[in-house]
């Protein structure tokens, strides 16, 4: 069974597996990890917001310290 992606905004801050549009092929989507924080999507370990569209997400993903 394929994964079920949520399309509304997350309610909890954390790292999410996100599906975003592919910029080169409109019929494809790419999978990336993004951080949801303060009602915005952010790139991991960055101070830059993700400005594109998030088609869906799964998470938050559990993170562990090494």
Q: What is the count of DSSP helices, taking H or I runs of 4+ residues?
A: 0
Order of helices and strands: EEEE
Helix content: under 10%
How many E-type strands?
Answer: 4
Nearest-integer average pLDDT: 91
Quaternary state of this entry equals single chain
Radius of gyration: 12 Å
* Overall number of structural domains: 1
Overview of the molecule:
The structure is a single chain. The protein is built from no helices and four strands. The protein has one domain. The chain has a four-stranded antiparallel β-sheet, with no helix packed on it. 12% of the residues are buried. Helix content is 0%, strand content 36%. The protein has strands at 14-21, 29-37, 40-43, 56-58. It starts with 13 loop residues before the first strand and ends in an 8-residue tail after the last strand. The chain is globular, with a radius of gyration of 12 Å. The chain is mainly beta.
């Amino acid at each position: 069974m394929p994964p079920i992606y949520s399309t509304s905004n997350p309610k909890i801050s954390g790292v999410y597996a996100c599906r975003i549009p592919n910029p080169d092929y409109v019929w494809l989507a790419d999978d990336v990890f993004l951080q949801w924080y303060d009602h915005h999507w952010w790139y991991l370990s960055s101070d830059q917001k993700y400005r594109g569209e998030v088609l869906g997400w799964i998470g938050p993903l559990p993170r562990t310290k090494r």
